[in-house]
Amino acid sequence: MQAVIKKKAIELLESGTVNRVLGWKAGEFFYDLTPAVFTTPEQIEKDFVYSVFSGANMSKYLIDESKKEGKVAAFIKPCDGYSFVQLQKEHRIVRENIYAVGLACDGMCDMREIREAGIKGVTSVEEDGETLKIGTIYGEKTMAKKDALLERCVHCKSKKVVDCDEMIGENGEENRDCGRFDEVEKLEAMSPDERFAFWRSQLSRCIRCNACREVCPACSCVKCVFDNPNSGIAQKAAASDFEENNFHIIRAFHVAGRCTDCGECSRVCPEHIPLHLLNRKFIKDMNELYGFYQAGADFESKPPVMNYTTGDAEPSIVYARGGDK
Amino acid sequence: MKTEDMIKEITRISGGNPAKCMKCGKCSGACPAYDEMDYHPHQFVNMVLDGRIEELAGSKGIWNCLSCFACLERCPRSVEPARIIEAVRVVTLRKAGANHLKPDDIPARLDDDIPQQAITSAMRKYAK
Amino acid sequence: MQRIGVFVCWCGSNIAATVDVEAVADALSKEPGVVFATNYQYMCSKSGQDMIREKIKELGLTGVVICSCSPRMHEATFRKTCESAGLNPYMVEIANIREQVSWVHKDKAVGTEKAIILGRAAIAKVQLNTPLIAGQTPVTKRALVIGGGIAGIQTALDIADAGFPVDIVEKNPTIGGKMAQLDKTFPTLDCAACILTPKMVDAGQNENIRILSYSEIEDVKGYIGNFDVKIRRKARYVDEEKCTGCGTCMEKCPMKKVPNEFNMGLDNRTAIYIPFAQAVPKVATIDANYCLKLNTGKCGICSKVCLADAVDYEQKDEILEEKYGAIVVATGFNPISLEKFDEFAYSQSPDVVSSLEFERLMNAAGPTGGTLLRPSDKTHPHTIVFVQCVGSRCDASAEKGKEYCSKICCMYTAKHAMLTREKYPDTEVYVFYIDVRTPGKGFDEFYRRAVEQYNVHYIKGMVGKVVPEGGKLKVQASDLLDNRQIHIDADMVVLAAAIEPDKSARPLATKLTASMDTNDFFTEAHPKLRPVESPTAGIFLSGTCQGPKDIPETVAQAGAAASKVISLLVKDNLVGNPCVAKPDELMCNGCSSCEKVCPYGAITYEDKPFRGPNRTTLIRRVAVVNPAVCQGCGACTVACPSGAMDLLGFSNRQIMAEVDAICK
Amino acid sequence: MQVDKNWTPTIVAFCCNWCSYAGADLSGNNRLSYPANVKIIRIPCSCRLNPMFILRAFQRGADGVILCGCHPGDCHYTTGNYYARRRMTLLFSMLDYLGIEKERTRVEWVSAAEGAKFAATMNEFVEAVTALGENKRLEDFRCKQ
């Protein structure tokens, strides 16, 4: 796959279709791939990496990149694709300045899962069909790829790239039966006390590094309310339980209906807080109450929070739904 | 079964809602078996709504409904009397506990001219 | 820091009996920013107001808090008071200590404590108040009426009567609309043409009215008082100024096989045509789809025979740009397509007709010259079956038809039945009905006349199917009251088709940013209290574009819409509500969230240059609120994720300050 | 839980200007009493209520927050309460999901003619919140005296 993508990237540069390519390169470690912009075929040959760790959602970088001189090539995985379309709907990216190459994706891996499987001292990871060949300082080990997938890939909601100029690999289909709400349901079935305890145990670890916000394609405000001294709720660090809750509730609310469930927030959280469970709660509620909605699946629909029907459920439905005492 | 439960059961099986009926009578206007029945399609709906189900179930008319779906096709309110009458028949049969046919018996009785709908309908009636 | 004066009102004993007003004034005098606090018997009295004025001047107050009755009662009063003393009226806040305190809490200690808290909240809010100035926008004193049916004509006539210029934009070659096609009108049975055509002539001759026929709305920009409208004047290939409407071209035109839409396609017309004798403007139009000259380049007869030299095959569509202060939508209705109702054999037999077609068959100017003949064999029908509610009152989940009652069918069917029996007493007439709905002046009497005097057979039931067979129409129907199925061999079947808004209405609504319901009827600003206004300011509704209506209702609504337009156009300037949404450009993402929830279409977007890093310039799309259109509901403020959108007078910080003061 | 007998909850009621604020006025006009812990904040429309305000109220020590607006279909701005209805439904569901007592938040539609309903609603709501006791789960300890 990497070879094909590199070839395509070089071809696009050399043909003059684009003057730069948005892709991935190795970060501090081989598994923390970071997005990067390449301008020459040489750079691509040398640094461009596409591996099972190319999880980073590229769409947010296009907000700035698409406004620069000339066309930029971007490689769009299915989940990036939803954000890509959503951002176009929000007029945040200039589509004409982008050459989008859709990538068929069968899941990205999580280094944490590999470590948790007891594999230490990892020096390389190679994909070999269904298995991962893992080089370690203690010799080569293997592991099934499905056991190392990122959470969002375990419950992959779609393999379809909604919008691109060409595809590498076969475009896939949506999968509404992916079980991504199972965890939410488990929480809903708990008692309020248990839920409170669960979320305290999670959110109290928040160090307010803002990684979730910075990586989130929906959290792309020019200026975030939490950074704006005039908003009345600006804060640098959470000084109390309340502020820990407040930040995440407001953040989830602000992206409700625009969140494509790309899972980046949870992927980057250094405290491993399952933040996607907050967004998914909103998505699940909206699906159940207002009909299925996938942000970024099309160019026309209004998000449920910016829409209504005269027969919508009353807020009191909350008292009747979900887990009770 | 209590009357209310019967109404609920019939509504559930039919998938329709007799309360939507505006009593226009288009069903009875469309029915080709009208004269074969003691109660007519528009009456089915109303009788279910009124809870006069015993009376309806006891009538011969319900067995004369051909399930041609003319009423269902033309009903402007999506009440779909054909489904309701089918539901009444199903309830009647189930109540009688008389599964005249076992599923295994059905194939032997099939002939080529039986419409697919009738086979399905027979399965629903007789199979437990 | 503001310099705030607090004035606590006793309201006689209304407040003072259960609130210790002195303690309230005393406590509030210690709040930050408060430079003066007092209490007085009646703040709203002249001497009370004088005291406020005096203190504003004497102490240089920059904010005023009045603890008194509900702001719904006297907010306006106190705002005026302060304005007359030179203080911006929006620097006043009211703490409602009567309706919310003294009248609902009996215990004086409890009441006093709550009054102090409400006072504190008001003070906290005033701290953050900013002077607001209501914007003024000039009004273009000209109205646009879209649609030239009876609704549009009446609205235009009434507006013109008040002295304002009006343009009527009509997509067809003539005004007149559906009413021009009708034979008689219920319940008086006057001839539709006799009462409509004089109005059409009036409209054509009125010096304040300009009729732009054969034209469509291309684009609408702007807002109440200041709309910029682009109107497409479709090429009619005839110079309107030169054409005298003599009709010679129509006589000579060799293309005579064009379905005549005015007669519902029941006969033919020529390619160059005037829709009907009383058309206004009485100008010929060439139908480009059929004209031989335009399609093959050969012919040109009309041009040769035209003495006025009016025919111009080179004419092109033109775009007219005009400014208007108000827009009235009067786009009307059409009967629904009956294709999906083939149980009635509409597409199988020409003798199954819609009511509007029947109307033409009865009309003296219609295809049969007013003699009722079957379309198939031009013989006189002896048995006619009328079917009501065809496509009306259908379930939402049904695949065909409309959920609503079309309202006019019961009456026109009674009219048709009656007229048939009157002219042709040897005809048997059956009307199948579900309900006969006749709520209108003289309506039920009319229907009863059809039954009692004219012996029309009204049968409660519905036709289940119609089968053409041997020159007859076999009608199978139910008679619910007799509990039998009946079979009639009819010569004609007339279907009372549901009516639906004209297809042009939906794209027009988008251009106007006016809202519509799921049936494509325009929604009104308030279903009871503002029935002729759209929620979008400056857009008014007339006739069936808002919902099914008969002629008297349409005319009444047309007049009402006109009076609303007139009361807008007489103003030189519109004074806005200054408590409107205001976006902070520096924070705006341009994501369109706010626009999606704005019920008034007050928000647009602009690409603006901003300073970027390293002396670069970045172009960003940002929201712009038109204060003349914004009504200040605040829906956008919550939709905005970045908090760039705020509401003046009810800003995020003001409301949070109130929250803080109350929860302290 | 230990309940201080003298403790009364702090309730913030956001009322839309056109219906519910007028309804509250009417309950005053008719001298229909409700507990003094209810403090009303006037907003132009129920759709003006930002979830931030609700969280802020809890932070600053409110024990219950109620939003009152025009009945759906009667909004002065035609559509405001429809948006408010969706937003509040989702927010309340989220609060419940975080384990915060769902009885602390409520939406009621009160028309300008429903003074009696306003008073009854407030009585009922105060009772419900009193039964729950103090808000501990969304408070900010720094804001306590």
Describe the structure concisely for a colleague.
The complex is a heterotetramer of chains A (325), B (128), C (664) and D (145). Chain B is mainly alpha-helical and 128 residues long.
Task: Give a structural overview.
The complex is a heterotetramer of chains A (325), B (128), C (664) and D (145). With 325 residues, chain A is an alpha/beta fold. Chain A contains 13 helices and eight strands. In chain A, a hairpin with a 2-residue loop joins strand 5 (122-128) and strand 6. A five-stranded parallel β-sheet of chain C has the order 10-7-6-18-29. A five-stranded parallel β-sheet of chain C has the order 20-27-21-22-23. In chain C, helix 2 packs parallel to helix 6, helix 7 (150-161) packs parallel to helix 16 and helix 13 packs parallel to helix 14. The model of chain C has no long low-confidence stretch (mean pLDDT 94). With 145 residues, chain D is of the alpha/beta class. Chain D has helices spanning 20-29, 51-59, 80-97, 115-132; strands at 11-16, 38-43, 64-69, 105-109. A four-stranded parallel β-sheet of chain D has the order 2-1-3-4, with helices on both faces. In chain D, helix 1 crosses helix 4. The radius of gyration of chain D is 15 Å and the shape is globular. Classes of the chains: A alpha/beta (325), B mainly alpha (128), C alpha/beta (664), D alpha/beta (145).
Which secondary structure elements does this structure contain, and how are they paired or packed?
The complex is a heterotetramer of chains A (325), B (128), C (664) and D (145).
Chain A: H1 2-14, E1 20-25, E2 34-38, H2 41-47, H3 61-65, E3 72-76, H4 78-89, E4 98-103, H5 111-116, E5 122-128, E6 131-136, E7 139-144, H6 151-154, E8 166-168, H7 182-189, H8 192-203, H9 211-215, H10 241-255, H11 264-268, H12 276-290, H13 317-320
Parallel strand pairs in A: 1-3, 3-4, 4-8
Antiparallel strand pairs in A: 1-2, 5-6, 6-7
Chain B: H1 3-14, H2 26-30, H3 41-50, H4 53-58, H5 61-64, H6 70-74, H7 81-96, H8 106-109, H9 116-126
Helix pairs in contact in B: 1-7, 3-7
Chain C: E1 4-9, H1 13-16, H2 21-29, E2 34-40, H3 46-59, E3 63-68, H4 71-84, E4 92-96, H5 98-102, H6 108-128, E5 136-138, E6 143-146, H7 150-161, E7 166-169, E8 184-185, E9 190-191, H8 192-205, E10 209-212, E11 215-223, E12 226-233, H9 248-252, E13 258-259, E14 268-269, E15 272-273, E16 285-286, H10 292-296, H11 301-305, E17 318-324, E18 326-329, E19 333-335, E20 352-354, H12 355-362, E21 383-390, H13 409-423, E22 428-433, H14 443-452, E23 457-460, E24 463-469, E25 472-479, E26 484-490, E27 492-497, E28 499-501, H15 505-512, E29 539-541, H16 551-569, E30 573-575, E31 581-583, H17 593-597, E32 603-611, E33 617-625, H18 635-639, E34 645-647, H19 652-663
Parallel strand pairs in C: 1-2, 1-3, 3-4, 6-7, 6-18, 7-10, 18-29, 20-27, 21-22, 21-27, 22-23
Antiparallel strand pairs in C: 5-30, 8-9, 11-12, 12-17, 13-14, 15-16, 19-28, 24-25, 25-26, 31-34, 32-33
